[in-house]
Amino acid sequence: MTQASDQNDGARPADDAQSEAVVIYLFQHFQICSEPPQLIASGTPRDIPPRHLDLLLLLLQQPEKPRWTHEELLAALWPGRVVTTQSVARLVADARKSFAAVGIKGRVVETLHGHGYRLAPVFVAGLTCLPHKDVSKSSGNNAVADDLSSAQPVRRGARVAIYIAAAIAFGILIALAKYWWPAATPPVLFSEAQAVAGRILWVDDNPHNNTAEVADLRSRGYGVHQVKSSADALTLVKIYHFDLIISDMGRHGNPLAGLELLSALRAANFDLPVVYYTLVVNPPLLAEVAARGGQGAAESSDALTQLVDTYAGSRHKTHLKTAQ
């Protein structure tokens, strides 16, 4: 991250005026302003859920912090409220979708399995922080406007009118469609989308630890099925087709449960790929996984996604060709 040099903006606001430090972050063609909170793309403000923007601005306060724990994020984003750690996982998963929807390339928030979250290093490396300014609330947002002169504010009234007109037009089209075309035969419902990128069996006795990762994989088109024990996993692979197994390493007090599952699969002549999502990945672990016939291990969500794309995606395509 690069830091621009401080500049003297002249006299400070009067003592009786409320002031706040304003920070503007630049990344790719985006500008992220702390006050008022907004995200601007190529000079145009973009709509993004306030809670998602709060998460991003919180992480940007310490962009090079090694990790943010669930407890820290809960205290900062839900002060004085009792919520579960799943709220953090869901917020991160939904925020990733929002960031991608406005055009931010790459993952902004990275999961550190079992440890928490951090800003992705590639995001931090391309980040620039503009000088701080003291902006008086009583004087409006003129100072921010000076730095973001190319950003034209969107008139809320005009946007509301456009939304209403679009909704009315859409309703008219739906009514006409129902009048002119007969109702189609209801489609057969399946437990997952018919066209999936791959079918994954995830074995972990604490599935809530993987809420964000599961949501991310499903948003990428994968069907993810979760079980808590090796016994359930062995039963399911005998009944259904899966393209990949993701497993934790220790379960139910057995630190080798994940490796023992791999050995049992290979002994039963199941050749589907097996990868591990665990706290620490090192050469001895990778060597043991390979020796038992496994395909790899990951300790970050990005590394896990790469393994999934490599093994589940390619295997699923092969399975479809064989089934035809």
UniProtKB/TrEMBL annotation:
Question: What are the Response regulatory domain coordinates in residue numbering?
Answer: 199-312
- 4-aspartylphosphate found at: 248
InterPro entries under this entry? CheY-like_superfamily, OmpR/PhoB-type_DNA-bd, Sig_transdc_resp-reg_C-effctor, Sig_transdc_resp-reg_receiver, WH-like_DNA-bd_sf
Q: Where are the transmembrane segments?
A: 160-181
Q: Tell me which residues make up the OmpR/PhoB-type domain.
A: 22-121
The record places the DNA-binding region at 22-121
> Which Gene3D superfamilies does this UniProt record tie to the protein?
3.40.50.2300, Winged helix-like DNA-binding domain superfamily/Winged helix DNA-binding domain
Q: Which keywords, in A-to-Z order, does the entry hold?
A: DNA-binding, Membrane, Phosphoprotein, Transmembrane, Transmembrane helix
Q: Name one GO molecular function term.
A: DNA binding
Q: Which domain of life is it from?
A: Bacteria
Return the protein name: DNA-binding response OmpR family regulator
Organism, as annotated: Simiduia aestuariiviva
